[in-house]
């Protein structure tokens, strides 16, 4: 039962962090515009792949889960 409580708190913390990022997205100017994000614009076509942003978020989430696992 104690593990369930720990898991629910971890999920709640994660959802809180995601909500904060979404809420303050406009005031975080570099999010989605990092060097390494791929943007291709043609006349009537736009392709955007946030490679560097995805890698950065993956690194932060990995560190977050690693620290809370111990």
How do the strands and helices of this protein lay out in sequence?
Layout: H1 2-23, E1 38-41, E2 46-49, H2 51-69
Antiparallel strand pairs: 1-2
Structure commentary:
- The protein has 70 residues and is mainly alpha-helical.
- Helix content is 59%, strand content 11%.
- It has 2 helices and 2 strands; from the N terminus they run H-E-E-H.
- Strands 1-2 form a two-stranded antiparallel sheet.
- The longest helix is centred in the N-terminal third of the chain and has 22 residues, at 2-23.
- The radius of gyration is 16 Å and the shape is elongated.
- The two termini are 18 Å apart.
Task: Write a short abstract of this structure.
With 70 residues, this protein is mainly alpha-helical. Helix content is 59%, strand content 11%. The chain is built from two helices and two strands; from the N terminus they run αββα.
